[in-house]
Write a structure and sequence with these properties.
169 residues; mainly alpha; three-stranded antiparallel β-sheet; 3 strands
């Protein structure tokens, strides 16, 4: 059994972002990626960003999205998908129904991501890093934020090893 530790470089883009870390068993990684992309198409009618940039939680869950999602009653999923795709394709010319559908699709998509994550037994770790955290050029040690993340991952693996020994022996 092996686990992937996927570290998002969020903290290095000069924004106030935490590192997002996801641990997933190696045999599940490709299936997780496929399910996430399928959900994106199911809720938005297409890939949200079309591969130009990654889909950011900070962007998809703005306060404005919650307000827009409530401006009309819930739109049925099949209709919402078509309207959300139209909103993404039309951009600034989209109307109230398209904007509402896109906002509702965003919230539904995020909810689905948590279901997918749970189905694949992913474990999440996070470390909030100051925007002014110094980057070291010295290769003798890791920055404290990385050291903390790797330490948490180490203890997670130790926990799994303990479970494995308990259930297998």
């Amino acid at each position: 059994m092996a686990y992937f530790l996927c570290v998002d470089e969020s903290g290095s883009d000069l924004h106030n972002s935490p590192y997002a870390v996801l641990a997933i068993e190696d045999r599940d990684l490709w299936n997780l990626i496929q399910d996430i992309q399928a959900a994106e198409i199911r809720y938005f009618g297409r890939r949200y960003s079309r591969g130009k940039e990654e889909l950011k939680g900070k962007k998809i869950l703005k306060k404005k999205v919650y307000r827009q999602a409530r401006q009309l009653p819930p739109i049925p999923e099949s209709e919402r998908c078509v309207l959300a795709q139209s909103c993404l394709d039309e951009g600034s010319t989209a109307g109230k129904y398209e904007i509402t559908a896109l906002a509702q699709a965003k919230l539904a998509y995020v909810s689905e991501l948590f279901n997918i994550r749970s189905r694949f037994r992913c474990k999440a770790f996070a470390s909030i890093v100051s925007r002014n955290a110094p980057f070291t050029l010295d290769n003798d040690y890791l920055r404290k934020d990385y050291a903390y993340l790797f330490e948490r991952f180490f203890y997670f693996l130790e926990y799994l090893r303990t479970l494995f020994r308990y259930y297998c022996f």
